[in-house]
Design a protein that fits this description.
Blueprint: H1 7-22, H2 31-34, H3 38-60, H4 70-92, E1 113-115, E2 121-123, H5 124-133
Antiparallel strand pairs: 1-2
Helix pairs in contact: 1-3, 1-4, 3-4
């Protein structure tokens, strides 16, 4: 009896591999899939499920299906990829060092100069004096600074 090709093993491994390789170039571009990688995790879950079904078939009916040797190897590689991805996204990336020099809430920001949208330099002290010159009470004069943590 000719043994059948166990496509579920290879499809599961391919899906896990595709999920691991497409996160950075594709899914990290969009905030909805970058902030919480739900699409990649779904690809991992579907790939691991296909691997489990393929391994079950290979060991329950070895006379009919292939994969008793290559199945565990593919499953081990897939679990390692998923583990590295989960560690990198959920543990390592969230463990950023605290910056002791960062301003705290309510702390007065030091004066700095940055270019505006036309490329002209604008200082923080100029913005404070412009807000005070507009007739506002001195206690109400302030500048709102918003810091964005970039994603490169």
């Amino acid at each position: 009896m000719k043994r059948l090709w166990n496509w579920r093993l290879w499809a599961g491994f391919g899906l896990v591999l595709a999920g691991a390789l497409t996160f950075v170039p594709v899914f990290a571009r969009f905030p909805v899939t970058r902030d919480f990688p739900w699409v990649t995790l779904l690809m991992f879950a579907a790939g691991l499920a296909l691997l489990a079904v393929g391994l079950t078939r290979a060991y329950r009916r070895p006379e009919a299906y292939r994969g008793r040797f290559v199945g565990p190897v593919l499953a081990l590689l897939s679990v390692a990829m998923v583990g590295l991805f989960v560690w990198g996204i959920f543990i390592n990336a969230r463990d950023l060092p605290a910056s002791a020099a960062a301003p705290h809430v309510g702390q007065k920001a030091p004066d700095f100069t940055l270019p505006d949208q036309e490329g002209r330099p604008v200082a923080l002290s100029d913005l404070r004096s412009a807000a005070g010159a507009s007739g506002a009470k001195p206690a109400a004069v302030g500048v709102l600074l918003i810091f964005y943590r970039g994603h490169w």
